[in-house]
UniProtKB/TrEMBL annotation:
This is Uncharacterized protein.
Length: 173
Protein backbone atom coordinates (compact mmCIF):
# COMPACT_ATOMS: atom_id res chain seq x y z
CA UNK A 1 0.00 0.00 0.00
CA UNK A 2 2.79 2.38 0.92
CA UNK A 3 4.53 1.70 -2.43
CA UNK A 4 1.39 2.65 -4.37
CA UNK A 5 1.09 5.88 -2.39
CA UNK A 6 4.76 6.74 -3.03
CA UNK A 7 4.39 6.00 -6.77
CA UNK A 8 1.25 8.10 -6.92
CA UNK A 9 2.97 10.96 -5.10
CA UNK A 10 5.96 10.76 -7.47
CA UNK A 11 3.76 10.76 -10.56
CA UNK A 12 1.80 13.75 -9.17
CA UNK A 13 5.06 15.63 -8.62
CA UNK A 14 6.29 14.72 -12.10
CA UNK A 15 3.01 15.91 -13.59
CA UNK A 16 3.23 19.19 -11.68
CA UNK A 17 6.82 19.68 -12.83
CA UNK A 18 5.84 19.02 -16.45
CA UNK A 19 2.95 21.47 -16.19
CA UNK A 20 5.29 24.09 -14.74
CA UNK A 21 7.78 23.54 -17.55
CA UNK A 22 4.97 23.84 -20.10
CA UNK A 23 3.85 27.14 -18.56
CA UNK A 24 7.40 28.41 -18.74
CA UNK A 25 7.62 27.31 -22.37
CA UNK A 26 4.50 29.30 -23.18
CA UNK A 27 5.92 32.39 -21.46
CA UNK A 28 9.23 32.04 -23.34
CA UNK A 29 7.37 31.72 -26.64
CA UNK A 30 5.35 34.86 -25.85
CA UNK A 31 8.55 36.69 -24.92
CA UNK A 32 10.22 35.75 -28.20
CA UNK A 33 7.17 36.92 -30.16
CA UNK A 34 7.02 40.19 -28.20
CA UNK A 35 10.68 40.83 -28.94
CA UNK A 36 10.07 39.98 -32.59
CA UNK A 37 7.19 42.47 -32.66
CA UNK A 38 9.52 45.16 -31.29
CA UNK A 39 11.90 44.50 -34.18
CA UNK A 40 9.04 44.54 -36.66
CA UNK A 41 7.70 47.82 -35.26
CA UNK A 42 11.13 49.42 -35.59
CA UNK A 43 11.57 48.25 -39.17
CA UNK A 44 8.11 49.53 -40.06
CA UNK A 45 9.54 53.04 -39.70
CA UNK A 46 11.08 52.35 -43.10
CA UNK A 47 7.55 51.93 -44.48
CA UNK A 48 5.90 55.00 -42.95
CA UNK A 49 4.89 56.54 -46.25
CA UNK A 50 5.27 55.97 -49.94
CA UNK A 51 8.97 56.19 -50.59
CA UNK A 52 8.45 57.17 -54.25
CA UNK A 53 7.37 60.61 -53.00
CA UNK A 54 10.65 61.02 -51.10
CA UNK A 55 13.60 61.02 -53.50
CA UNK A 56 15.84 62.46 -50.76
CA UNK A 57 15.01 59.49 -48.54
CA UNK A 58 15.67 57.08 -51.43
CA UNK A 59 19.14 58.57 -51.84
CA UNK A 60 19.83 58.53 -48.11
CA UNK A 61 18.58 54.95 -47.86
CA UNK A 62 20.73 53.81 -50.79
CA UNK A 63 23.75 55.46 -49.19
CA UNK A 64 23.11 53.85 -45.79
CA UNK A 65 21.96 50.40 -46.89
CA UNK A 66 23.82 50.01 -50.22
CA UNK A 67 20.63 48.87 -51.94
CA UNK A 68 17.39 50.37 -53.19
CA UNK A 69 14.41 50.81 -50.88
CA UNK A 70 11.95 48.64 -52.82
CA UNK A 71 14.24 45.58 -52.97
CA UNK A 72 15.20 45.96 -49.32
CA UNK A 73 11.57 46.18 -48.18
CA UNK A 74 10.49 43.14 -50.18
CA UNK A 75 13.39 41.06 -48.86
CA UNK A 76 12.89 42.31 -45.31
CA UNK A 77 9.22 41.42 -45.39
CA UNK A 78 10.00 37.88 -46.54
CA UNK A 79 12.78 37.51 -43.97
CA UNK A 80 10.61 38.78 -41.12
CA UNK A 81 7.82 36.40 -42.15
CA UNK A 82 10.27 33.47 -42.10
CA UNK A 83 11.52 34.40 -38.63
CA UNK A 84 7.99 34.88 -37.33
CA UNK A 85 7.01 31.40 -38.58
CA UNK A 86 9.99 29.91 -36.76
CA UNK A 87 9.16 31.71 -33.52
CA UNK A 88 5.49 30.70 -33.77
CA UNK A 89 6.29 26.99 -33.91
CA UNK A 90 5.21 25.11 -30.82
CA UNK A 91 8.58 23.43 -30.78
CA UNK A 92 11.36 25.85 -31.61
CA UNK A 93 14.01 24.67 -34.04
CA UNK A 94 17.01 26.61 -32.75
CA UNK A 95 19.16 26.17 -35.85
CA UNK A 96 16.40 27.27 -38.24
CA UNK A 97 15.41 30.21 -36.02
CA UNK A 98 18.98 31.42 -35.70
CA UNK A 99 19.45 31.10 -39.45
CA UNK A 100 16.30 33.17 -40.13
CA UNK A 101 17.57 35.83 -37.74
CA UNK A 102 21.05 35.79 -39.29
CA UNK A 103 19.55 36.53 -42.72
CA UNK A 104 17.96 39.67 -41.25
CA UNK A 105 21.24 40.60 -39.56
CA UNK A 106 23.06 40.34 -42.88
CA UNK A 107 20.42 42.52 -44.48
CA UNK A 108 21.14 45.28 -41.92
CA UNK A 109 24.91 44.73 -41.85
CA UNK A 110 25.85 47.49 -44.32
CA UNK A 111 23.62 49.96 -42.47
CA UNK A 112 25.05 49.02 -39.07
CA UNK A 113 28.62 49.48 -40.33
CA UNK A 114 27.93 52.50 -42.52
CA UNK A 115 30.57 55.23 -42.45
CA UNK A 116 27.73 57.77 -42.38
CA UNK A 117 26.83 56.63 -38.85
CA UNK A 118 30.35 57.15 -37.55
CA UNK A 119 31.14 60.47 -35.88
CA UNK A 120 31.34 63.18 -38.51
CA UNK A 121 34.72 64.74 -39.07
CA UNK A 122 33.94 68.43 -39.69
CA UNK A 123 37.04 68.68 -41.90
CA UNK A 124 35.97 65.82 -44.13
CA UNK A 125 34.83 66.61 -47.65
CA UNK A 126 31.75 64.43 -47.10
CA UNK A 127 30.69 65.96 -43.76
CA UNK A 128 27.85 68.04 -45.18
CA UNK A 129 26.62 65.13 -47.31
CA UNK A 130 26.69 62.79 -44.30
CA UNK A 131 24.66 65.32 -42.28
CA UNK A 132 22.14 65.57 -45.12
CA UNK A 133 21.82 61.77 -45.32
CA UNK A 134 21.16 61.59 -41.57
CA UNK A 135 18.64 64.44 -41.77
CA UNK A 136 16.75 62.82 -44.66
CA UNK A 137 16.66 59.50 -42.82
CA UNK A 138 15.31 61.17 -39.69
CA UNK A 139 12.74 63.22 -41.63
CA UNK A 140 11.33 60.05 -43.15
CA UNK A 141 11.54 57.62 -40.23
CA UNK A 142 11.10 60.11 -37.37
CA UNK A 143 14.13 58.49 -35.77
CA UNK A 144 17.81 59.38 -35.73
CA UNK A 145 19.79 56.91 -37.83
CA UNK A 146 22.11 56.12 -34.91
CA UNK A 147 19.17 55.39 -32.57
CA UNK A 148 17.51 53.31 -35.30
CA UNK A 149 20.76 51.33 -35.61
CA UNK A 150 21.06 50.78 -31.85
CA UNK A 151 17.41 49.74 -31.60
CA UNK A 152 17.74 47.23 -34.45
CA UNK A 153 20.86 45.73 -32.86
CA UNK A 154 19.21 45.54 -29.44
CA UNK A 155 16.08 43.90 -30.88
CA UNK A 156 18.07 41.31 -32.83
CA UNK A 157 20.23 40.50 -29.80
CA UNK A 158 17.10 40.11 -27.65
CA UNK A 159 15.53 37.77 -30.20
CA UNK A 160 18.68 35.69 -30.29
CA UNK A 161 18.69 35.48 -26.50
CA UNK A 162 15.02 34.39 -26.55
CA UNK A 163 15.83 31.69 -29.10
CA UNK A 164 18.65 30.34 -26.92
CA UNK A 165 16.47 30.41 -23.78
CA UNK A 166 13.59 28.66 -25.52
CA UNK A 167 15.83 26.01 -27.01
CA UNK A 168 17.47 25.35 -23.66
CA UNK A 169 14.11 25.17 -21.93
CA UNK A 170 12.69 22.81 -24.55
CA UNK A 171 15.61 20.45 -24.02
CA UNK A 172 14.64 20.25 -20.34
CA UNK A 173 11.01 19.68 -21.28
Amino acid sequence: METKYTLSLCSDLDEQEIQQLQKQAKILKENSLNTFNALKTTTQRLERQTFTNCPSFQQAFAHLFHTDVRTFKIELSQNLNNLEKQLNNEILHEKDSKFSLSVIKVQFDKFIHSDVLKPINPYSSSASYDREVRKNFKDYTQMEAQIFKETIIQNMNSIEQCIVERASHEQKL
